[in-house]
Amino acid sequence: MSNSAASAVLTTGDLSEATRAVRTLLDLADLGQAEVDFEAVVRSPGVLAQVRHVLPDLQWWALAGKEHGSAEAGDDPAECLPIRVFDWCRPLDRAEPFIAALGPDPAAVRWDLSAWPAVPEAGLEKISQKYAYLTLSVNSRDLYQDEPSQDHTVHVHVRDGDGDQIARVHWLAARVGGRFTGRVELAPL
To answer: Is pLDDT above 80 for 170?
Structure first.
């Protein structure tokens, strides 16, 4: 199994600033076959209702474990809160409504891009779809909602173990007024 290296390039308490940074990075990416994935921990009935409005066919299971409730068992998620939500391969236009639905609950929204294009003037080669991702951690500093926070972190993904790609991370961070802090999480592909 290979990994991508998710590098934190911007952390802010302002969700609209984080969303603007994501939009800027999406404008730089090849979005030809792009899609978006969602993971979240939903704790309240109000957030659950808003999230289900955006993603009605939500895949979920109780945070305490699947034996305490799941979508595949046909359980009512409102009776199993808190729940862990997973939804994959959605159109890009679902991302911002999902983010708006979250309230204070932690989530990760990951854009699976077609590529990070070449940037010849910066000496950067194209990065293929396999390693081209962008993640916004909402109300969390990490990819997996293990570090709840009142701020939001934008991560750019590149190949793990490829030192040449660190230049891409710095270049992307500069596009959004952020900087690479050195914080990297490995994300299985």
So the answer is: yes
